[in-house]
Design goal:
- The chain is built from 11 helices and 12 strands.
- The protein is an alpha/beta fold.
- The strands form 2 sheets. Strands 2-1-3-4-6-5-10 form a 7-stranded mixed sheet. It has a 5-stranded mixed sheet with strand order 7-9-8-11-12, sandwiched between helices.
- Helix 9 links the parallel strand 11 and strand 12.
- Helix 1 runs parallel beside helix 2 and helix 7 crosses helix 11.
- The longest helix has 14 residues.
Length: 306
């Protein structure tokens, strides 16, 4: 996803000289194509993410559209006050880009595991939260947020995620994307966890269950129309995210469903309000915390059996 993001950003920046990219002294191998082709639209703020965000806000208030770039929690939680006070409050065109949402940097421990970021950024007024599920969604999301007014959080995987789409027609911030139809249950996912949904589907199919599947590249604004429609059609909606279930994607879906009476029960699948005390790669930690394909299928089947 990060390579797809940089590729599209280079294309956009060549056409629009108001685009700026600021890095917190990270991503040099990945960002090299950008600074080589757009050197006058690039700044390295150093290992000073709070300053990076303040600089971005100042540039944005002078008419620039500024992307800040770092990994894990560094561009978000480390500089939350600057995002809130300097960017969001002023509706500044700052696009906060995190590479490595969830357990991508799992081997570096909980300081590098971004598992509360969706909830915290989603709570800031006027901040859009975008979590693409594959490289095609990442490319389309980058194009979309470049022209989307105000502050946006873009949460990317690290790379190597399974491709979901050949292409996307009419990508829009705030709109879910149907992967396929099904019956009885629906699976909603956001972000790079989608590759585990594909694995879970194989297990469910062996039990004669074909779920409706949607990917939600946008967590905020959430696609209320799709949620309400599907909630009236199926018995169970399972939300899947590589994030704490409190305040995250599942909570966003729950908020919509709670406002009206619906047919569906909701199952939120994610990290159960805990920091990881284990260290390992992303795949290992997904297994340990019950958000890999087999564990997702197991939770859905157990809920149906109840």
């Amino acid at each position: 996803m990060r390579d797809a993001f940089v590729k599209i950003l280079v294309e956009i920046a060549k056409e629009n000289k108001n685009i700026e990219l600021i890095t917190g002294d990270l991503g040099f191998g990945v960002l090299k194509p950008y600074w080589e082709q757009c050197p006058d639209q690039f700044t390295n703020a150093g290992i000073a993410e709070q300053n990076m965000t303040g600089i971005a806000a100042g540039m944005a208030l002078e008419g620039k559209t500024v992307f800040t770039y770092s990994i894990g929690n560094f561009p978000t939680l480390r500089c939350l006050e600057q995002i809130r006070n300097d960017c969001a409050y002023h509706k500044a065109n700052v696009k906060v880009v995190c590479v490595g949402g969830g357990f991508v940097y799992g081997s570096l421990g909980m300081s590098h595991q971004a598992t509360e970021d969706i909830a915290i950024l989603r709570a800031l007024p006027d901040v859009a939260v975008v979590c693409p599920g594959d490289i095609v969604e990442a490319e389309e999301a980058t194009k979309a947020i470049a022209t989307y007014p105000g502050t946006v959080y873009l949460r990317l995987g690290r790379g190597g995620e399974n491709r979901i789409h050949d292409h996307i027609d009419n990508f829009q911030i705030g709109k879910a994307i149907k992967i396929h139809d099904g019956e009885k249950i629906a699976i909603f996912s956001t972000g790079a966890i989608f590759e585990e949904i594909e694995s879970a589907e194989e297990v469910l199919k062996s039990h004669g269950i074909i779920p409706v599947v949607y990917t939600f590249p946008t967590v905020k604004p959430i696609d209320r129309e799709v949620i309400e429609k599907i909630a009236d059609e199926v018995d169970l909606i399972a939300t899947c995210e590589e994030h704490n279930i409190i305040g995250g994607f599942g909570s966003a879906v729950a908020e919509v469903m709670a406002e009206k009476r619906h047919k569906s029960t909701l199952l939120r699948i994610g990290i159960h309000d805990a920091y990881s005390i284990k260290v390992g790669n992303q795949k290992y930690l997904r297994q340990q915390y019950g958000i890999d394909g087999p564990a997702i299928a197991k939770q859905i089947l157990e809920t149906l059996n109840k």
